[in-house]
Amino acid sequence: MASIESVTLEVADPTAVRSFSTTAFGLDSQVRLRASEAPTTGFAWETASR
Q1: DSSP three-state, residue 31
Q2: Distance, CA of 22 to CA of 28 (rounded, Å)
Q3: Alpha-carbon separation of residue 19 from 2, 24, 39, 45 (angstroms)
Q4: How far apart, in whole angstroms, are the C-alpha atoms of residue 2 and residue 22?
Q5: Exposure class string for 5-36: b at 16+ Cβ within 10 A, else e
Q6: 1-50 pLDDT, tens per residue?
Q7: Pairwise CA distance, residues 19 & 6, whole Å
Q8: Which listed residue, of 12, 13, 17, 22, carries a Cα 20 to 30 Å from 37's Cα?
């Protein structure tokens, strides 16, 4: 069975998202974050791969 080891999210405030994902869901190494300067208007799912 295939499983996802981690996901990478591009977010405006990685520190805030890290705090939220850790506190709310207990996720740490499963969520990788990188800062984005690009404006967004919502969630865009671009690519999911193993």
Answers
A1: strand
A2: 6
A3: 28, 8, 21, 22
A4: 24
A5: eeeeeebeeeeeebeebeeeeeeeeebebeee
A6: 888 888 888 888 899 989 998 999 898 888 899 998 877 776 666 555 55
A7: 17
A8: 22
